[in-house]
Amino acid sequence: MPDRIPVLLVDDDPDLREVTASYVEREADRIAVETAPDADAGLDALADGEFECVVSDYEMPGRDGLAFLAAVRERCPDLPFILFTGRGSEEVASEAISAGVTDYLQKRGGTERYERLANRVVEAVEKRRAEREAEEAVGQFRAVAEGASDAILSVDTDGVIEFANPAVESVFGYEPSELEGEPLTTLMPDRHRNDHLGAVERYLATGERSVDWSDVRFDALHRDGHEVPVSLSYGEFTADGERHFVGVIRDATDRDRHRAFIEHASDVVAVLSRDWRFRYLSPSCERVTGHAPSDLLGERSLDYVHPEDREAVRAAFGELDAEGGPPTAEYRFETADGEYRWLESVGSERIETDATEGYVVTTRDVSERKERERTLARLREWTRDLNYARTTEEAAELAVDAVDDLIDAGLSGIHLRTEEGDRLEPVALGQSVPALFEEQPSYDRDAPPGTRAAMAWDAYRSDESLVVDELSAYEPLDEPSPAESLVLRPIGDHGLFVVSSPEPNEFTDTDVLVAEILTGHLEAAFDRIERESRVERLHDATRTLVRADSRKEIAERAVEAATDVLGFSIVTVRIHDEDAGGLVPMAVSPKAVDLLPERRTYTPDGGSLNWGAFDAGEPRKFDDIRETEALDADTDLRSLLIVPIGDYGTISVGETEPGVFGGVDEYLAGILATAAETAFQAEARTHRLAERTSELERQNDRLEEFAGVVSHDLRNPLEVARGRTELAREECDSDHLAAVERAHGRMTALIDDLLTLAREGDPVTDPDPVDLSRVVGSCWRTVDTRNATLRAGAEGMILADEGRLKQLLENLMRNAIEHGGDDVTVAVGTLPDGFYVADDGPGIDPDRREDVFEAGHTTSQSGTGFGLRIVEQVADAHGWSVRAGASEDGGARFEITGVEFEE
Fold first, then answer.
1. Which of 323, 462, 555, 759 is most exposed by smallest CB count within 10 Å?
2. Whether residue 627 is found in the same domain as residue 565
């Protein structure tokens, strides 16, 4: 489809990349997404395909999103680039804006984020397209205005002339401004007017044409009253819903008048033979090239073309009889004084007469245009440097140097408004200023009329440029000045750009345009530098938020940042309190206390603008709350900006003047709100952690109490029972006593394992390097191995608590012997990220492998059921994982992974 928008999406997460592409294409079916997994692949895709927008993640392997943006800007300076990132740092946002990102979005919220992303993509692309179309339209208009030899008129449905090009003067004797706004019948003899009006009325009513619009011939009326035979071709178009007509009118007088026109034309009309020789040249040749036409007749035209341009001319014109559109070439032509001027030639029709055979070529002097193009090219270089200026002073110096280089205006300067707003002080001056001014020029706001200062302040308050060609004759100025030519251009709210020269009539329209373009880029640079400075100071201020101990302290520090750093005067931070049923004021600025009534809780049904912004979860800006039903509409408060702090509350800032908040203020307030939200989240986590820590401490106390009971209150009676059993064995020999003795032994093992479970659960926070092979050997010697065999292959130094590591290994070895028998073989080996303990015993039922770590689970008559639970507990304390499986010999195999080896 012609409205298709190709988009390159770069994200290293394949699932998120796929989801984002699908949602964005669904949200806007105009968008066609191609994806890339990283910045390098994205650059390859840009080299191979055509895209109108790039959407990129920030955190990616290799180049991050900002490095990718820099690489894209080198290739495609104006390609829209949207940073779509899950990292919501104001530092990233600041760096992205400084790097020239088109837009910055966070991957937050539900699927509505994709709708926002799709909307931002469409907006950015349509803006870029509109800018390109506008540039093309301006270029086409200029080409028509400068080059058309035929008269061109546009007329509305009432027959009123809306536009006339300069050529109307040669056909009708009127200047364009004299015809614009006049009825078309002005150019018609009386006898044609009624017929014309009737034909137009019928066409508008029925749509039927009474004549061939491509070639209408009639006698038009010249300004001096004589009639002019003309031929007219015209068409219809619609603009802004209105119908208009445009006509191209050509003087249709006889050949002599046509030749006379050629003789007096500003362009050079020439006839070239097949071998590039001049056969005819109009008189304007001498004005354009300095050569009299007679001096060039018979000369070979290519010999006068600059050697570096000859091949281009030859290629453009070929044999001068090629089919297709008229050939065109720009080249340097040697003038009579030996200099070169830039000319543009357009080939026309072939002519064949008894006297002449050749081709018509129309040529005009385009030296000024080429110079203008070179100036604009250098201007782009200067403005690019402005984009990298880091300070106001650096940007101002660059602008002054640029205007001196581009339009030779060394008597210029940048004057910025002081913080008090009462003076325009110079921050950068041209190199000629010290020589012509006794002291650096500065301008007081309250200077009397007729002074240079008053003129400067009038220009600063204006939205337009003040251009004076001869300052000494300028009536509003009474004070003498070393300058004669002057251009004053306001730099937004920052100050004034003074472009001047000691010579009168020094600046052309192009010079003024260059100064205006440069001023626009300088204003953007000042805005960017100011924004970056505020962001940096805000970043420093918000660092203190996360160190606050309470919500109230967070709110107070947010108010301080809003007033001291961002310069807002009326600030309130509200916190959502469920018990209070709304937004409760937590901190206010001093001016808010003085200016506004006592703050109260804003509830959902109270009609508060604050609650509306909080409930919607999006910022709300009001240029004048007196035009709303705001609760504070009857106070001195006028401008209001409300930014939600996530689910925690709002930050509202206000001023007593209407319409003071712009996009930068909203952006910075958003950064402050994000920082406050992060601080509130940290405070909530800290609070929850403190409660969890307290609960764990209480649990540990209960466990310690349990361990004491088990250790003392159970062991003592058990020891008494064992002693009594020994005494009973001395008095009598009974099989029952052996069973009692075995029960006592099992009870002792249970108590030992329970104590281990109660006391071995704390995390290992300071592990030491441990030789795994040495510990395995030590554990094997400690355990009652009977006739079992150890096959040890474990190697390496691991980071662990040695005592608890032994507890783990001993329990695994006992488990293997208890279930595998006296002659079992136990193998201990190393894994890439841990170790294993395996045996060749009967193994574990696959359906019960997850159950073996449960407390009390055992399949052995002598086991307590706690050994493997202790193994899992020790592994968890180290941050390891343990898994039960089958060994190569069919027995059990326990793998402990996540182990860190010492390098």
1. 323
2. yes
